[in-house]
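Methods: example folding runs. The two proteins below were folded one after another, and each record is reproduced exactly as written to the output file, sequence line first and structure-token line second.
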Amino acid sequence: MTPRQRLTVLATGLGIFMVFVDVNIVNVALPSIQKVFHTGEQGLQWAVAGYSLGMAAVLMSCALLGDRYGRRRSFVFGVTLFVVSSIVCVLPVSLAVFTVARVIQGLGAAF
């Protein structure tokens, strides 16, 4: 395997790892999220489900975009979208902003 192929495998593997970690990592933070946003179970459910809903909504379309515009470009766009929305999740503005950022994380994960 060439160094470039190894780097590709490593980058792809890290991206996939982050997708699976992020699906569940919010569960650890639920008590803190509830305190910061003063919300009940319904708000927490949207924060948890938003990621999966965003990813499921566009997953098949993203595969088509990857075929059309190139897998590398699609992957880089998805990672960028994921990272930017992750930064927004860290800034606790409101539960609505947090939930929208989680949905956008899911969109990025779909790429």
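Second run, written to the same file directly after the first:
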Amino acid sequence: MPIQTDAPLVIAPMPTPFDEHDAVDHGAIERNVQRWRETALCGFVLNSENGEEAFLSEAERLEIIRTVHRAANGDRLIIAGIDNPSVTETLRLAETYAESGAELLRIRIPRLTTNIRGYFEQVIPRAAVPVIVIHQTAPGLFLQTGTSASTSPEMIGEIVAADNVYGYITYDNIRFESRVR
């Protein structure tokens, strides 16, 4: 699906359904996508916190992207989530996710590094598809870590102004976010 630039997107994080054997239920994913195609949703964020990203293997995440790509039939955006502090691994995942059907990448500001600017300076221009940066300080507390203290509103503003950045997802600290430019 072409990425809209003239209107806001209505996107939803997709939860990952599991079957009675605790395996990803791809039939349920397909049924959910078919149901959601009848709504105003423009696309789905896959492998996010709401999609149990910390509990899925890479093979499971890739197959989820492929399943949604087939079920969406090209009329919904597929946004794949990446939460990895390694530049090399982020770029490898970005390429693999794009090859599997992702049209945008939702990349979380790394929590396990202090070189956030350097990370994004290397990732954004080399990402296979456009990036949505997400600032989520303590997502679900699955990893028990928050965003690095070296993150500032000014730095985030510089990062999201880069070419190949499609958008930015804020978090709940309105005072902090109001200073991002």
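Comment on the second run: The longest strand covers residues 77-82.
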